[in-house]
Amino acid sequence: MFVKLALAVLPLLSSVLAIDGCTRNATVVSGDTCDSISRKYGVSTYQLALVNDATIDENCDNLQPGQVVCLGIEEHDCTKVYTVVADDTCDYIQQTYGISNETLWSNNPQIDDACDNIYVGEVLCVDTESYTYPQYNETLYNALAYTYLPYCDE
User: From which residue to which does the signal peptide run (predicted)?
Assistant: First the structure.
């Protein structure tokens, strides 16, 4: 009984917990994933995970309908995004959006040096302006990346 009550209250609590400087937010609906929210609202998957690392777990499987998530924070809200598809490379993304190597990595610090950890469905910030993000939860990103990487082979 207590567990059911706690689960029912969780979305309400998460919507009450305000993230300092949150500039925009979204309400989770049934079937949402971190990547689908990112695509729907034009926010990078990295940024979504970063600003919600206190409420979204490592596999992004604890989203609850009615839960409010922050999409961006003041001065760190990239809204020019691209969704990775099969066979994408960082070089291709850079050329397509006219962004430098430094800017791509600055706006997507989770990408490794070889750019072999981007995954199909990941939403990247492709703005030509560089954003400086606070420290990110590398464990959360890696859990997302390695959860979806096998689909790159399809």
Answer: 1-18
